[in-house]
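pls read this stuff:
=====
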Amino acid sequence: MKKAILTLMMIAIATVAFAQIDPDENGIGLYFDEFGYEVCMSTAAPFTPITAYLLANNISEESGVSGFECEVTTDGPLTASAWALNGVQPLNVFAAPLFAVGLGENELATPVISNVVLLATLTAYVLAPTDQVSFGVKNLDAGSFTPPSPGYAAGDNAGLLVPLQVSSGFPFGAAVAQINIDPCGVVANEDVSFGSVKALYR
């Protein structure tokens, strides 16, 4: 009996340890891993390379993503920043970090893998461990969604637009990921009252 209880406790601990930051449906955030777990990191050496992933997670459309809109904001020094869009033939109307991206429907759509859709990847360098960087995700100023929000188009129907809530909650623009900030100030979405933004879509 004790062995069974211990096993259940270990499973529970593992589940908590590897829980995604944003448990809600139709989320978007920037993460330091490809599965939506890590939003805080630190560097120990000069000129450290970093990689961050723009992810949509727990999306309601199982067909994936045929396009998306958002803006990623950066507060702090990064060197040699470069964005790479995910997809077969992605086309961004703007220049990153502004994204109004068409990917294509059906076989051209970006698929859901392990509850997340990889939208884009950021690579850059942090020059010193004392350099502090904070990232946010927000709507485009002239986007397709009313009320304004980030969002995506369904993989099998580019005309079906789905708003995305940001992993750090509402209002948009709060920190979703941070580098060399101690303590890390990212607030997981389950700790934020998201009723205000959900009410906008009722």
The longest helix spans residues 2-17. The radius of gyration is 18 Å. Helices lie at 2-17, 195-200. Confidence is low (pLDDT under 50) at residues 1-18, 189-202.
